[in-house]
Write the structure tokens for this entry.
Amino acid sequence: MLEAIISGLMALATPQAMLFMIIGVSYGLMVGILPGLGGIVAIALLLPFTYGHERAATLALLLGAHIATIWGGSVTSILFKVPGAAKSLALVFDGHPMTQQGHASRALGASATAALLGGLMGAIFLAFSIPIVRPVMLALGPSEYLMMALWGLTIIATFSEGSLLKGMIATSAGIMIAYVGMDPVSGTPRFWFGSIYLLDGISFPVAMIGLFAVAEMIKLFVKGNTMIDRVAGEEKSSVFDGVKDAFRHWWLVVRSSLLGLWVGVLPGVGASVGGIAAYAQAAQTSKTPERFGNGAVEGVIAPDATLGANEGGGLMPTLAFGIPGGESMAILLVAFLSMGIVPGPQMLTTELDLVFSMVWIIVIANIITTLIGLAISSRLARLPTLNPNIMIPLVLSVCLFGAFATRGLVEDVLVASFFGGLGYVMDKYQYSRANFVIGMVLAEMIERNLHISLGLYGDYFVLTRPITLAMLIFIIITTALPFLRQQRQALYKRFFFNKKNKQVKE
């Protein structure tokens, strides 16, 4: 194995490979910042350039670009409340409040460092766990995937903005929007109103661009001021503060990275679910969950560590079994096949040096991305204070272009505009947009896996599947934990107050 590790590194020690890596990272950062694009589009646009070059150099270009899009998507989520891609959604919840409080540099520093640490853990996992994880993957089925999706719904209470009823209404609305189009199981058209366009359903990136990006520009126009007031926009912390935050919350980074690896290994789950789940576990296990949604740096660290580690986890089933861990991995699998790389057992034998080349690419690309990110974060942090006459047309142009670029349909631009108005109204009347999006993300996954589970295992599949039952118990415990903690704190305060009053009377 040591020989394969060295051979994999030496394959990258060529001028062409290093040049391609730098080009890929730079390109990935730019694409990642554009709303609605992300790693899928970044890799897809590079596919024509994968022919006629060294395999290591081509992999450096593709993987470097894909990894860089992770932090690129985090930038706009933190600064403008505009998720660069679906997987960056969770960064909005606390990243943007930190920007509003004058801690944008700190948030960007924590984001870049957490993504780096998560990426390194993902690379280590990819290097050593392929032979170990296969039996675990084979033991999981649709019922377990269903439980993971249901776990994602437990975060609803966190974002209900004081009203659980409004949070549930927003989530239900998101689920209904997700049902527009073809039934994923039966193929029956639903809520299509005779429109051919609606048969394909509402594009998630397009809806997300409207709900957050366009809605924020409407708010900015109505407000008639900068996204952040000039006084409040003065930076109160530095990038280095964010770096220290990531290392200070090292246990959260480890937990979130392990979650990202797990989600990456599971085919079809996707990084967006991982980011939401990471945020949920950070909030549910925190001693001060009330800070989440109001600028808690842990709400930035957890999702980015998960997203960084997710890439290593996603590559594992892609390489070992030819099963893409997500949409980006599916595009990457196409590139592998075009280069003559055939996933399967041979990847662990004759092509082991190539596997370790990918491991080194993940490590080096994460380091380069983080160094660039930390270097430019202080300058990026000033962007939200730009004059609205400059900011509104600039951001709207980028967002609407991103909406059009997702599928190349003019209708998507109109849909993004509609959801922009909807997002503005929801924000004004305190209906959680986060809950709406969570409903959209998880609805299809829940429906599909529920149908399959009922068909394969019967009506009582929860009781007949031990892993499923264990996951359900875990969901109940993690959901009840914040409420139990609140009750304990209330009882403690009551006891302490009564005891203090008794002592005063005596």
In short: The longest strand covers residues 181-182. The chain has 22 helices and two strands. Residues 2-464 form one domain.
